[in-house]
């Protein structure tokens, strides 16, 4: 029996069977740390991707901005004009004409201007005597009525003995103001403490007429009390300006000439041209020449800036397309593909659809663009080329000038072709018998058409009007297929907007039509459309980084990765929470087991004691 009890008492308790509590907790903690390390690695991978996407977004935003300058002619200055001047007379051209301004409507070429006479204002100078001013700050002793007739209107100024020259000038101005006259009086300093009173029209030209002065002496005798009459130092009537523009005489009351030729304005400085009998068309005067030319310098700079912004895109593509890094050098490498890395800290976006989109933008810039006959179709025709550059150890293609003289010559010889290459161009050729006016409506967010059946092709359109002049049908023929446009009437303007449905080969093309006198007719127009390279790339970049209220692909991708980072963080927190709960539960269960083991030990001891008693009794 003792053998039985010994065996029972020395049996394996539950604690011995389960093992050490500390060993369990240690093992669980190790698993948690491994999980945290794995989560940290996964998070680092995604945060690296987010950083690269952010860099890509900045590059795309810059590209969009540079493209926007090129696609906005008013801002870009495609129609910018500059002027230069010369003169047949001695001295600088600015001695004759100044403040020359030209805008995008100004014609390129020379405008010859002979200044025969400048516009002047009516003027009267009052003095105490010939060449003598009035004493300042003292009563002049003048007592009577002075009447000034200006612009045909008589204005009476009542002077009394105590009036100073300053007070008399103020009374004159008060009379002019009350009468609403465009004249004014002011003091002109004389010798010593004296001043003259100058009365002058505010505007130049003969309209002011001569200023007439008359006196009414209250004391009689023709003298205005002490000091004699107010003396008319000088009295000059206003005159109009007379100039000859390309041999055509023009007369006006002002020296400011606005749009004398479309888009050209200037002012006369005050000097007139000298005589030259050989210039009969200019009233036998010498002339000044204003030369207007197109200024492409700013556009050239913007094109180069545009290309340079795409160089940055080339770099980020090359950086993320690296494929020959060994897995032994990259902790994120796929061990099953020894010479190919994924989720790489050096090429974090490798394999991402974003890289495919970015590559399409770069290829759009560096490959052939569709166009019409005679159009420029690649940057290489502008003397540009590609060369290799290295940045931060990454080799990539960059834009450079193989021959800048070609670039300059294209601008000088055929600037319209350069413009068509970068900016979408839509030409509308109207039948000579048409009476309706059709206008292309470009939109900032229009989808560019690249279908070869449309680009650079002459597309016949037909507009049909009923007996009331309403547009009832608008069609376009592409590759022998007739496409019907949607028609919307604007009752406010009386015009019709026509557009083509989404999915149509002409989707994005929209026109405005003013019927004029088109009634019961069908009118034909030829449309020729060529998308601009900057417009195409702007659209591509916008699809990746949207600015029209929609999410671009980079934004959607970043949102997805950020959601993954959040999920990883949530998962890590859950694992840690579960471990804590497991540890607490384990500790509770071990306490229960320990109690059970103690009770078992007591029971075993009691049994052993009972058995020992039985054994002793039996003996």
From TrEMBL:
Keywords: Cell projection, Cilium, Coiled coil, Flagellum. Residues 238-596 form the Flagellar hook-associated protein 2 C-terminal domain. Residues 558-585 form a coiled coil. InterPro entries: FliD (IPR040026), FliD_C (IPR010809). It holds the Pfam family FliD_C. PANTHER family: FLAGELLAR CAP/ASSEMBLY PROTEIN FLID, FLAGELLAR HOOK-ASSOCIATED PROTEIN 2. This is Flagellar hook protein FliD. It comes from Candidatus Megaera venefica.
């Amino acid at each position: 029996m003792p053998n039985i009890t010994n065996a029972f008492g020395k049996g394996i308790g539950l604690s011995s069977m389960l093992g050490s509590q500390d060993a369990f907790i240690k093992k669980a903690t190790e698993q948690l740390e491994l999980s945290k390390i794995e989560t940290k690695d996964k998070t680092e991978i995604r945060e690296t991707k987010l950083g690269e996407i952010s860099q890509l977004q900045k590059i795309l935003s810059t590209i969009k901005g540079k493209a926007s300058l090129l696609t906005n002619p008013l801002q870009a200055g495609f129609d910018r004009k500059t002027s230069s001047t010369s003169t047949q007379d001695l001295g600088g051209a600015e001695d004759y004409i100044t403040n020359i301004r030209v805008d995008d409507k100004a014609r390129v070429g020379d405008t010859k201007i002979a200044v025969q006479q400048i516009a002047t204002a009516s003027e009267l100078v009052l003095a105490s005597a010939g060449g003598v001013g009035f004493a300042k700050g003292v009563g002049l002793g003048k007592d009577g009525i002075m009447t000034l007739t200006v612009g045909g209107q008589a204005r009476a100024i009542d002077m009394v003995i105590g009036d100073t020259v300053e007070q008399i000038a103020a009374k004159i101005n008060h009379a002019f103001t009350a009468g609403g006259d465009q004249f004014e009086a002011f003091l002109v300093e004389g010798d010593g403490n004296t001043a003259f009173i100058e009365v002058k029209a505010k505007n130049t030209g003969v309209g002011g007429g001569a200023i007439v002065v008359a006196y009414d002496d209250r004391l009689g005798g023709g003298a205005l009390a002490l000091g004699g009459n107010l003396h008319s130092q000088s009295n000059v009537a206003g005159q109009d300006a007379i100039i000859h523009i390309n041999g055509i005489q023009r007369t006006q009351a002002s020296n400011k000439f606005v749009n004398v030729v479309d888009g050209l304005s200037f002012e006369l400085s005050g000097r007139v041209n000298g005589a030259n009998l050989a210039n009969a068309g200019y009233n036998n005067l010498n002339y000044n020449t204003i030369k207007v030319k197109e200024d492409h310098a700013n556009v050239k700079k913007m094109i180069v800036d545009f290309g340079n912004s795409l160089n940055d895109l080339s770099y980020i593509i090359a950086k993320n397309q690296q494929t020959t890094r060994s897995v032994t050098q990259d902790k994120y490498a796929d061990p099953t593909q020894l010479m190919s890395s994924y989720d790489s800290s050096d090429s974090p976006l490798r394999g991402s659809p974003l890289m495919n989109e970015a590559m399409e933008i770069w290829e759009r810039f560096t490959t052939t663009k569709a166009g019409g006959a005679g159009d420029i179709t690649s940057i290489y025709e502008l003397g540009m080329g590609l060369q290799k550059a290295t940045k931060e150890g990454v080799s990539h293609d960059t834009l450079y000038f193989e021959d800048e003289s070609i670039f300059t010559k294209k601008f000088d010889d055929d600037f319209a072709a350069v413009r068509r290459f970068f900016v979408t161009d839509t030409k509308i050729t109207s039948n000579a018998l048409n009476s309706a006016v059709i206008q292309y409506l470009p939109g900032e967010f229009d989808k560019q058409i690249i279908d070869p059946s449309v680009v650079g092709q002459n597309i016949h359109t037909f507009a049909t009007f009923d007996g009331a002049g309403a547009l009832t049908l608008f069609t376009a023929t592409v590759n022998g297929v007739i496409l019907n446009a949607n028609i919307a009437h604007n009752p406010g303007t009386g015009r019709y907007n026509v557009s083509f449905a989404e999915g149509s080969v002409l989707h994005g093309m929209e026109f405005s039509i003013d019927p004029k006198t088109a009634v019961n007719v069908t009118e034909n127009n030829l449309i020729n459309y060529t998308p601009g390279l900057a417009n195409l790339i702007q659209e591509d970049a916008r699809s990746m980084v949207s600015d029209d209220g929609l999410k671009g692909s980079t934004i959607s991708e970043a949102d997805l990765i950020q959601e993954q980072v959040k999920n990883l963080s949530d998962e890590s927190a859950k694992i840690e929470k579960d471990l804590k709960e497991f540890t607490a539960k384990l500790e509770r269960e071990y306490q229960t087991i320990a109690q059970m083991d103690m009770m078992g030990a007591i029971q075993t001891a009691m049994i052993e004691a009972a058995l020992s008693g039985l054994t002793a009794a039996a003996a």
